[in-house]
Amino acid sequence: MHNICTLFRREFASYFATPLAFVFIVIFLFLTGVCTFVLGGFFERGQADLAPFFTYHPWLYLFFIPALSMRLWAEERKSGTIELLMTLPVTLWQAVLGKFLAAWAFAGVALALTFPMWITVNYLGDPDNGTILAAYVGSFLMAGGFLAIGSCISATTRNQVIAFILTAMVCLVLFLLTGFGPAINALDGLLPQSIIDAIASMSFLTHFSSIAKGVIDLRDLLYFATLIAISLAANAIVLDMKKAD
Amino acid sequence: MIEINHLTKRYGVLKAVDDLTFSVAAGEVLGFLGPNGAGKSTTMKMITGFLAPTSGSIRVCGHDVESAPLAAKTCMGYLPEGAPAYAEMTVRAFLDFIANVRGLAGDRRKSRLDDVISRLALGSVLEQPIETLSKGFKRRVGLAQALLHDPPVLILDEPTDGLDPNQKHEVRTLISAMSKDKIIVISTHILEEVDALCNRAIIISNGRILADDTPRNLKARSATGRLDDVFRAITTGAPVQGVAAHA
Ligand SMILES: Nc1ncnc2c1ncn2[C@@H]1O[C@H](COP(=O)(O)OP(=O)(O)O)[C@@H](O)[C@H]1O
Ligand SMILES: [Mg+2]
């Protein structure tokens, strides 16, 4: 625990060592604003809720989360610090967890800084704050899912750009399109309905939108927890098998 | 005590380390010599638990590196080749991080930090990000990191590579000063270094041990008394300036 905490703090501080963190947060906030007010028609809808805000989260994460996760392990490989880290008295899973949690906490900070959105909607109307809180929880869990996948992919390469592109592709194809209406409808008739349902149930979108409706179902929580656990286990295995290069 | 038994490492078809067996006792400063690509770094990576051996075993201070990695890592300090460090951190933050991971606390933490900072003369660059440091300082930060917990075993991969003559001299003085009751393994292809620092030299090439002797005895093999000639004779297998060809 002590080691996880030490590694967490080092990693978390490293995000703020460069202006990158601030640039990241500013662009994230700007784009959530654009999505909510321009694309989502926040005012035109005339409803006091944050549905247009949360609807775009999966698609924003598609670009933002790989940008956070790409450096986690690729950078350690490139700079050679992986050799330093792995010869310190820490276990592999402590290192994987410490780094992942730091990235997740950073995503949490960026998400929390969208609070003016929540203030605005409370100022303009009388929203269901329980639903909003649930959607925030769902969004944070989804960020964790993206990040765990990104961390695992980052461990396979020393090139951050490759890590970024691969993570975005994997997340898009395996975890977003599988739950995206137009994409999944295209499969109608090609595959039996039960398989289509099974594919959709693997998707971030399916689970995120069910939480975002305000119901935190145990199955959705388990989905994200399992996904994160499997990705991080794969992350550790990749590191163990492929340390040398 | 380091005990290495039939250690082998393959990268695909390449045997980078081929059936090494040797041990190193306290007080020994072992120079690990060999041409580039001989397998020095690979051996050190296995000793320090970074790479798993293809076969063979390593014990450090009585702990098997594969079955008790944490105990083994605790009694070693390691300077990897090129002295990698987290570039964006300041020297102070980096050393604090290492101290945390090494579980140093209270008075001992403070005295160990003070000790390495003064030994390696890092006082003037403590608040500087590591990426802005000169090569000599970076290497010193790497050494400071390895020495911080005052380990009984030090593994240093090319500690003076790329330093200027003054810096080389400083690092050698430092290593000599510590060598009394530690085990120090230094890899290098600079022969004067072995002469200046080590009381034992192992010459390897293509992953195999070709010679294991004191620097003095090695030099005696050459009519010229030059370690360079002996090294070339041994690693190329050809007679060089009065050194009989190695069998
Ligand atoms: N990660 C790796 N993958 C494949 N081959 C490697 C790897 N690392 C080292 N080698 C090869 O193993 C041999 C020994 O390398 P190394 O231990 O770095 O030698 P030295 O440190 O003595 O110069 C070299 O031929 C090198 O090319
Ligand atoms: Mg080397």
TrEMBL record, chain A:
Entry superkingdom: Bacteria
Coiled-coil features, chain-numbered ranges: none
Q: Where in the cell is it found?
A: Cell membrane
The record's GO CC annotations read:
plasma membrane
User: What molecular functions are annotated in GO for this chain?
Assistant: ABC-type transporter activity
Q: What membrane topology was assigned to this protein in its record?
A: Multi-pass membrane protein
UniProt keyword Membrane, yes or no:
yes
Q: Which of UniProt's keywords are assigned here? A: Cell membrane, Membrane, Transmembrane, Transmembrane helix
Q: Where is the signal peptide?
A: none
Q: Which Pfam families match?
A: ABC2_membrane_2
Q: Where are the transmembrane segments?
A: 12-43, 55-74, 95-119, 131-149, 161-184, 221-239
Give the protein name, as stated in the record.
Answer: ABC-2 type transport system permease protein
- The scientific name of the source species is Povalibacter uvarum
TrEMBL record, chain B:
Concerning Gene3D superfamilies, the annotation shows: P-loop containing nucleotide triphosphate hydrolases
Which chain positions lie within coiled-coil regions? none
Q: Which organism is it from?
A: Povalibacter uvarum
Which GO molecular function annotations are given, in alphabetical order?
ATP binding; ATP hydrolysis activity
Pfam families registered for this protein in UniProt? ABC_tran
Which segments constitute the ABC transporter domain?
2-231
Swiss-Prot/TrEMBL keywords: ATP-binding, Nucleotide-binding, Transport
The cross-references to PANTHER family, in alphabetical order and at most eight, read: ABC TRANSPORTER, ATP-BINDING PROTEIN
Has the keyword Transport been applied to this entry?
yes
Name the protein family: Belongs to the ABC transporter superfamily.
Organism placement in taxonomy: Bacteria, Pseudomonadati, Pseudomonadota, Gammaproteobacteria, Steroidobacterales
Q: PROSITE patterns of this UniProt entry?
A: ABC_TRANSPORTER_2
Please give the name of this protein.
Answer: ABC-2 type transport system ATP-binding protein
